[in-house]
Amino acid sequence: MTSAQVGTQPEDIEAAESDSAAGEGYHRALGARQIQMIAIGGAIGTGLFLGAGKGISKAGPSLILAYAIAGLVIFFIMRALGELLMYRPVSGSFSEYARQFIGPFAGFVTGWTYWLFWVVTGITEVTAAATYMTYWWNIPQWLSALVFTFVLYGANLISVKLFGELEFWFSMVKVTAIVGMILICAGILTLGFSDAGDTASVTHLWDQGGFFPNGIGNTLMTLQMVMFAFLAVELVGVTAGESKDPKTVLPKAINTVPWRIAVFYVGALIMILSVVPWTEFEPGVSPFVHAFEKMGLGIGAAIVNFVVLTAALSSCNSGMYSTGRMLRDLALNGQGPAFFTKLTKSGTPLVGTTFSAALMMVGVWVNYQWPGDAFNYVVSFATISGMWAWIVILVCHVRYRRKADQGLLAESPFKAPGGIWASIVALAFIGMVIVMMALDKDARVLLYCAPLWGLLLLVSYLVLKARNPESAAFAKRS
């Protein structure tokens, strides 16, 4: 084991000892270009391209405001993470901070929960990608899923640089699609071309029953869906230990969060809802596809299908990357099997990535065989798992900021605007979203599995603690 007990207080940990990726065995191979696109891609997923239709039909144009407010909260979360990363840029990220600022059990829960989040997400996304392939070719879904998994698995084992390059191009496709849609819509509004030119107008944002056509209550109920769309934005934190220049690159990537959300979510929805009245959208139908059809562009469905295929593969690729790192971090701290610490010559976690990829393939098979409610419950739980990472980031930031203000820890050069209060506001907002989930019969199922997973982790931790007391101590890398 590579951890050593050094005391009972987390402030005894010195940031400098964990700042070196070489000490962890990783290679700093991710450049600024790749980190920027990983950060951008993490905020853009199938939730926007496919899921926004349900939100539009429920909240109307006010969905734009929901995305803007949720985007501000995401910015608070990312700046809190950024302050922690500049204090101590490590690959374990959230689980390392949880271990240091909350306690060993919190680190254990966070590491395994975030690992589960990406395994389940990988299962659903590679399954979805295989489904999207049938749009063009009559290929068995199991075959597409198998090929996608092996290709992404191989790319992640070759080098972290190849992972970064794949994410760069996956994100580029998503960004190009959204920017293209915005430009086309802007052209229609100003020049009046296409089939939608005669009726397109920004007045659609308020002349179809007002900005809140179904009431503020329904707008609030969409916040849970909106927050789900932002899951994985925190992935950039996992790359800290493998960035070439984390103290320069990561702040720049995190500071792009406001304009990313403003352009890709708020901007895109303003344009689409100005060209097509919100009353024409339906749940389950991509607003992008419907907008393309309204413009008379028959290739719209094919374009969006290609983009969501790319988004699904991007998410699966991210899952391959993060699961191996999380398992290795747990193992390095005695909270996971020691064999997960093994690295390839190129600095990638061989066993952890292989184990996670194997589970993803088993999950794909299970999904094909029993696509019923039980599997859907597990998939739904992935959402709670992702939000747990946000909660941990915010709690750790509050505790770090208090220690730093007292002079007990070094100041971070990248302080979060609003300090502790911004993190408290973000925590309160997430709490409100969870309450909304409990009130919504369709989303309530997301909360059912959390206590069972928590109980399983508690029992596992108690067994681990009895066998290896060091794993329950505040520790630092040797």
From TrEMBL:
Keywords: Amino-acid transport, Cell membrane, Membrane, Transmembrane, Transmembrane helix, Transport
Topology versus the membrane: Multi-pass membrane protein
A GO biological-process term: transmembrane transport
Gene3D superfamilies: Amino acid/polyamine transporter I (1.20.1740.10)
UniProt cross-references to InterPro entries, sorted A to Z: AA-permease/SLC12A_dom, Amino_acid_permease_CS
PROSITE patterns the record matches: AMINO_ACID_PERMEASE_1
CC annotations in GO: plasma membrane
Domain Amino acid permease/ SLC12A: 35-465
Any Pfam family: AA_permease
Residue intervals passing through the bilayer: 37-56, 62-81, 101-121, 141-163, 175-196, 216-236, 257-276, 296-316, 350-368, 374-398, 419-439, 445-464
Domain of life, per lineage: Bacteria
Intracellular or extracellular location(s): Cell membrane
Family assignment from sequence similarity: Belongs to the amino acid-polyamine-organocation (APC) superfamily. Amino acid transporter (AAT) (TC 2.A.3.1) family.
Protein name, UniProt field: Proline permease
